[in-house]
Amino acid sequence: MTVLTVNGFTIHKGRIGPEGQEAMVKAIRAVAGAAPLFSPLTPWGRPMRVKMTSAGRYGWYSDRRGYRYIDRHPSGAPWPSIPEPVLAEWRALVPGTRLPDCCLVNFYGRDARMGLHRDADERDFSFPVVSISLGDAATFRMGGPSRADPTRSVMLESGDVVVMAGAARLAYHGIDRIRFGSSRLLTEGGRINLTLRVVD
Ligand code: MD3
Ligand code: FE
């Protein structure tokens, strides 16, 4: 396992081994069974290319009214609890603080991307965000605190874990493209990203 720091983002390459990845996918399938994936609408009314769901006290949501956290799945069902193997990563990488109250699940199919953005819907940016990549590899673009800052790209592969803390917590970032079919973890291909956040 190697740890790299790029633009203040800490990347733990290959942190989760094959068995751990399988266990996480199984747990995420159970989350998506109870709280099905959906395509949020942007505030401009276009469906996002990434499908999403959440686990925890809060789930991230978007529609014409804007970005926010909501305490139920859009169906009205409660969000499932955050799977234990996912919480274990937070405990290991962010010791000595409270647990996250949202695990956002992003699913990227063949043509999904996520444009450059900042995560700013949470109350307190002093808590880190932890991201776990599963399945197909993707090009992750990371910039700085303003949109115009130069960006650097790194490949995120299945089992990689990224910690965004300090100045990196408010940095611009996005996913340019996925290398569809590069991993055999998900039988139908695609990429899952989990982000653990303290919301309020
Ligand atoms: C940097 N997800 O869900 S994970 C997101 O791979 C998001 O699905 C991407 O950006 C994905 O908001 C990138 C890496 C990541 C996640 C959250 C961050 C980087 C971050 C929050 C603050 C700064
Ligand atoms: Fe983000």
Characterization of this structure:
- With 200 residues, this protein is mainly beta.
- The chain has helices at 18-34, 84-93, and strands at residues 2-6, 9-13, 51-56, 59-63, 66-70, 102-108, 114-117, 129-135, 138-142, 152-156, 161-164, 173-178, 191-197.
- It has a domain at 17-136 and 179-197: Sandwich (Jelly Rolls).
- It contains 2 helices and 13 strands.
- The strands form 3 sheets. The chain has a 7-stranded antiparallel beta sheet with strand order 1-2-11-8-13-6-3, covered by helices on one side.
- The structure holds N-(carboxycarbonyl)-S-(naphthalen-2-ylmethyl)-L-cysteine (MD3) and fe (iii) ion.
- N-(carboxycarbonyl)-S-(naphthalen-2-ylmethyl)-L-cysteine binds next to β6, β8, β11, β12 and β13.
Structure in a nutshell:
It is built from 2 helices and 13 strands; from the N terminus they run E-E-H-E-E-E-H-E-E-E-E-E-E-E-E.
